[in-house]
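so my prof wants the structure for this chain in the tokens format not the other one, which i didnt know existed until like an hour ago. anyway here's the sequence
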Amino acid sequence: MPDSLKKVRNKALLLIGFFGAFRRSELVSITYDNLRFEPEGVIITLPKLKTDQAGEGIKRAIPYNQFVQDSCPVLALKGWLEANHINSGTIFRGVNPWG
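here's what i got, hopefully its the right format
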């Protein structure tokens, strides 16, 4: 049975948040334009952060998990983007009870 959209989103949200060490506010501000997929994983660029006094932003590289694909943050993120047909705007959007 296919996973619900909410389950796919939550898995990607938790894995990206954990492996990227993002705050909640940073996670919800990630947009499609902030992502750059590479052969090794994904690079997430955040232009503005709470603790960034210089206003330079940060880049966080998140690699593929080669050993356990079920807990791979990059595959979970790609799965969420494909399942919800996201190609612009914010990444982690709300999902209503009907998907």
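also thought this was worth mentioning. Residues 5-20 form the longest helix (16 residues).
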